[in-house]
Amino acid sequence: MYVAFKHLHVLFVVISVIFFITRFVWKQLESGMLQKKWVKIVPHINDTLLLLSAIAMLVISQRAPIADPWVTEKVLGVIGYIVFGLVALKGSSRAVSWFGFVVACVWLAALFHVAFGKMPLVLG
After folding, report:
1. End-to-end Cα distance, the chain
2. Which pLDDT score, from 0 to 100, does residue 122 have?
């Protein structure tokens, strides 16, 4: 069961990153796509499923988010990614949006490193 949730989790991560990059590009192009109802709803549904799959893996493996440093870093990394993702998508200027996008991508790279290596970057 854990493996099934892990595969779902990875799928939701990929979809989430694709949505983030796509919405950022649309923002830079000032596309009307950002005003479509489904564009505003689907990422939230996907991110909810992403979170639920992560919780399911924690429950199945009987891990607490603060028990393992690498899991703690993933949680902190997700918070950083969300904060700077919001800056990228809601920034008041192109410079602010680009800053948010670059920093969010750095957080994503750190998250992938921690997730694949199961080794914390800072807390270890």
Report:
1. 29
2. 72
